[in-house]
């Protein structure tokens, strides 16, 4: 227990001593505002959905709450953890040379991951939903049992995410594991009631409401089993990576000679492409996000899953924003490995920022092509898709590029497991805003002005930021140069601490 207390204390001290801590106090205020906004939004959804189901038969309320609602929220929770949660093994490296049992450190980090407040965020939805739907039929004790089981399922989802993400870092084939798992559970929802699986799932939901230990104990057992598997697997992979031998052989070499005509801009464009397709960390991230975008667009185009207005907007926004967030969340962090070389030439950083923006904008073409079947089937309109693409390429990228000024921690290019990659408050608030701000503002505009006018406003805002990109990119460059010596010092310090 003493070692757990000491490691918990050191974790807090590490956050306070991070170079980004003092710079992120203002960002923390915005984080609190953003959390309050989305907490209120989830409370509103929980109450409204509960009121809509309150007049229905108790069977339908239970069926919706246990078979439809929870699996879909688990999928959303699983996807949300990718940009906001790091695997605990990234914090093991500083302790590997100390006379401490390494398994205990990994176990502690897994326990701390389970106790993270992020795992309680969905209670802003489930508490009001349960108060409206559960209390009226089953009583307060059933509500407590219901919320306890929800918390256990979220913990299971947490450790399931850590397991899948660790395996995917080793081989992208493991991406099929969560796809098959969640796809299998969701497919059971649409199976006719006469099929035994529907009755089994319904019985599990009733067992949760009635605090039936025959259902709760096996659920806890699944969580413990996932915890043990994560612990053993992460210990094995950490040592495997630390003892790795770098492969210096290049199987395929592309110089992208067509970029020579664009001068220095082409050189930085070439540098970005090589970083994406040659370095293990960036290459794996891009592969995972592309597959997720393809899966979401395919589900919306060829299934009835996302037929509601919010579902369509969620998938479309995610498709256009996800790639940009993956590319730009750690903007300049990879360049921290060679920032001194970039600073020797005037306006070199400005050209680099322009190359990054052009590349991120080009990646918008992929989700646009993937959404063409949905446009043909009249599930979404062409104006809607163009508006969301414009808004993401303009306003959302404008937000993400602000991180170029504040990111001062070097990210290793090839380390996947053992490297500690802390996320600053500024990164969290801007990434959070980039992903969720469009989903919050568009329903308001659509409700106030109508769909066509809302789409037109979204398109106008996006085009305004796209057409003025040179202006705000130069502003970011000037702010970066105003604090260049402090940033360069922090980049060097973070490299030396690896």
Could you give a quick summary of the protein structure above?
The chain is mostly helical. The chain contains 23 helices and no strands. 75% of the residues lie in helices and 0% in strands.
User: How large, in whole angstroms, is the Cα Rg?
Assistant: 24 Å
- Globally, the shape reads globular
Structural class: mainly alpha
Largest sheet: none
Spans of at least 5 consecutive residues whose pLDDT stays below 50 are 417-421
Mean pLDDT, to the nearest integer, reads 76
Strand % is under 5%
Order of helices and strands: HHHHHHHHHHHHHHHHHHHHHHH
Helix tally equals 23
First-to-last CA distance: 28 Å
Q: State the helical fraction.
A: over 70%
Counting structural domains, the number is 2
Oligomeric state, counting identical vs distinct chains:
single chain
| Record field, number of beta strands | 0
Description:
The structure is a single chain. By secondary structure, the protein is mainly alpha-helical. It folds into two domains: 1-243, no CATH class; 257-498, no CATH class. Helix content is 75%, strand content 0%. The protein has 23 helices and no strands. Helix 1 (2-17) packs across helix 4, helix 7 (140-170) packs parallel to helix 10 (213-242) and helix 11 crosses helix 12. The chain is globular, with a radius of gyration of 24 Å. The two termini are 28 Å apart. Residues 417-421 have low confidence and may be disordered.
């Amino acid at each position: 227990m003493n070692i757990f207390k000491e490691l918990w204390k050191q974790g807090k001290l590490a956050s306070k001593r991070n170079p980004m801590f003092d710079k992120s106090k203002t960002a923390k205020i915005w984080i609190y505002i953003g959390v309050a906004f989305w907490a209120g939004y989830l409370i509103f959804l929980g109450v409204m959905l509960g009121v809509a189901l309150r007049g229905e038969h108790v069977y339908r309320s239970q069926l919706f709450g246990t078979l439809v609602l929870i699996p879909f929220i688990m999928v959303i929770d699983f996807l949300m953890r990718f940009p906001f949660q790091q695997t605990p093994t990234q914090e093991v490296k500083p302790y590997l040379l100390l006379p401490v049992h390494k398994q205990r450190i990994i176990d502690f980090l897994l326990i701390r991951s389970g106790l993270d407040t992020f795992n309680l965020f969905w209670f802003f939805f489930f508490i009001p939903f349960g108060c409206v739907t559960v209390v009226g039929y089953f009583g307060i004790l059933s509500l407590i049992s219901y919320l306890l089981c929800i918390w256990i399922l979220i913990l299971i989802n947490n450790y399931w995410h850590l397991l899948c993400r660790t395996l995917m870092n080793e081989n992208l084939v493991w991406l099929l594991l969560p796809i098959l798992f969640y796809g299998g559970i969701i497919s059971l929802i649409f199976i006719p009631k006469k099929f035994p699986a529907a009755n089994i799932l319904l019985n599990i939901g009733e067992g949760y409401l009635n605090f039936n230990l025959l259902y709760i104990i096996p659920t806890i057992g699944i969580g413990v089993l996932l915890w043990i598997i994560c612990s053993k697997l992460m210990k094995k992979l950490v040592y495997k990576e630390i003892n790795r031998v770098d492969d210096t052989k290049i199987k395929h070499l592309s110089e992208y000679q067509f970029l020579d005509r664009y001068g220095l801009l082409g050189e930085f464009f070439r540098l970005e492409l090589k970083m994406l397709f040659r370095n293990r960390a960036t290459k794996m991230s891009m592969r995972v996000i592309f597959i997720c975008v393809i899966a979401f667009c395919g589900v919306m185009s060829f299934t009835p899953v996302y037929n509601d207005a919010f579902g369509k907007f969620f998938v479309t926004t995610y498709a256009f924003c996800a790639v940009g967030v993956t590319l730009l969340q750690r903007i300049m962090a990879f360049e921290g490995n060679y920032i001194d070389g970039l600073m020797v030439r005037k306006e070199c950083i400005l050209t680099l920022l322009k190359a990054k923006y052009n590349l991120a904008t080009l990646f918008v073409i992929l989700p646009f092509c993937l959404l063409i079947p949905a446009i043909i089937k009249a599930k979404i309109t062409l104006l809607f898709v163009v508006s969301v693409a414009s808004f993401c390429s303009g306003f959302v990228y404008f937000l993400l590029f602000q991180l170029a000024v504040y990111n001062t921690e070097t990210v290793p290019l090839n380390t996947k497991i053992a490297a500690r990659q802390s996320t600053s408050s500024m990164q969290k608030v801007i990434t959070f805003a980039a992903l969720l701000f469009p989903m919050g503002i568009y329903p308001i505009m659509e409700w106030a002005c109508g769909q066509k006018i809302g789409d037109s406003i979204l398109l106008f805002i996006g085009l305004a930021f796209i057409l003025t990109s040179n202006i705000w990119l130069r502003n970011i460059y000037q702010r970066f140069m105003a604090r260049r010596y402090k940033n360069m010092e922090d980049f060097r310090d973070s490299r030396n601490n690896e």
